[in-house]
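Researcher: We plan to redesign the surface later, but first we want a full-length starting point. Tokens attached.
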């Protein structure tokens, strides 16, 4: 198990960025951090994971111009997203850590000050986030990342473990997170987990509430290289593995919430298989999903008693096949040609 090393006289905030092949975006990321207006010292810890483009050269140029702020590391060999993230987080020495990916950027020069002021007066919170915009790179279009809420009404909403287990609502944008470094810990399973930000939010939520400040301070860039664009049925299963690992890590707390989340991901995997695959590959994957359900699915509510045979014992697949045959037969017999 890894944990944060205690350092003497740290800056109040460490901004943490890990990046790979972000040449088209990294200048905007760097500029958004360097424009921050604060009443405290902060450092910017950046690690490039052996990019094949000019990302490292661009960061190095900034680091030479701002040596009092930027600490830059370039990995000689690619470590992978999880390992690079863990190593870089553990190199941060501020009381707080602000997360920012190398293709996203901040737009509010008072972002860090706003969040630090909030966290200093809300000790019950282990981390806080702000509102964000979504930027669709291909269409050059901005949309709110929180369409369910009024734009920038400065309201505060609080979340706990239950919400951390939910499928991705865009309530808690990772690139807006400011967290307490003292609560950062990486269990052994973290190195192989799917989506480090989701796993980290769960770990942080064991130590306090999450606060969402409804004020837009940053932008999440949507493009073809986003990790979240490549979600497949195999990725969905890894969500279930994450929830199971965290459930045991938490000391088997929040049983119903944890098991409910695992049930939903086992079900989501089945839906993904039915959508993505065909023929023999589909049947093989469905059988694997059924075996996985026997191992992980638990009865947490009355509806689960019916859901298990319908979705995981092929009853639903047979119903769909039967309906498809009826519809096909109907159209064949009523073809005007």
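Model: Full-length starting sequence:
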């Amino acid at each position: 198990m890894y944990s944060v090393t205690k350092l003497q006289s740290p800056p109040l905030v460490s901004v943490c960025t890990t990046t790979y092949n972000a040449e088209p975006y990294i200048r905007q990321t760097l500029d958004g951090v360097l424009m921050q207006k604060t009443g405290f010292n902060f450092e910017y810890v950046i690690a490039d994971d052996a990019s094949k483009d000019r990302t490292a050269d661009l960061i190095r140029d900034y680091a030479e111009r701002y040596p009092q702020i930027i600490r830059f590391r370039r990995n000689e060999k690619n470590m992978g997203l999880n390992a690079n993230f863990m190593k870089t987080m553990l190199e941060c020495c501020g009381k707080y850590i602000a997360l920012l990916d190398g293709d996203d950027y901040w737009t509010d020069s008072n972002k860090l000050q706003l969040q630090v002021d909030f966290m200093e007066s809300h000790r019950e919170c282990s981390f806080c986030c702000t509102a964000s915009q979504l930027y669709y790179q291909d269409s050059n279009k901005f949309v709110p990342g929180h369409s369910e809420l009024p734009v920038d009404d400065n309201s505060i909403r609080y979340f706990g473990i239950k919400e951390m287990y939910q499928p991705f609502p865009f309530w808690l944008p990772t690139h807006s997170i400011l967290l307490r470094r003292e609560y950062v810990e990486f269990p052994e399973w973290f190195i192989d987990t799917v989506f480090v930000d989701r796993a980290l939010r769960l770990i942080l939520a064991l130590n306090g509430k999450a606060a969402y400040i409804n004020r837009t301070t940053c932008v999440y860039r949507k493009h073809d290289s986003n990790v979240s664009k490549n979600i497949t049925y195999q990725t969905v299963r890894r969500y279930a593995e994450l929830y199971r690992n965290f459930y045991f890590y938490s000391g088997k707390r929040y049983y119903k919430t944890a098991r409910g989340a695992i049930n939903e991901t086992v079900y989501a995997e089945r839906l993904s298989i039915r959508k993505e695959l065909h023929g023999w590959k589909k049947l093989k994957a469905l059988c694997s999903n059924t075996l996985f359900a026997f191992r992980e699915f638990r009865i947490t509510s009355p509806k689960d008693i019916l859901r298990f045979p319908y979705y995981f014992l092929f009853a639903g697949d047979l119903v769909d096949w039967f309906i498809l045959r009826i519809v096909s037969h109907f159209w064949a017999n009523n073809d005007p040609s």
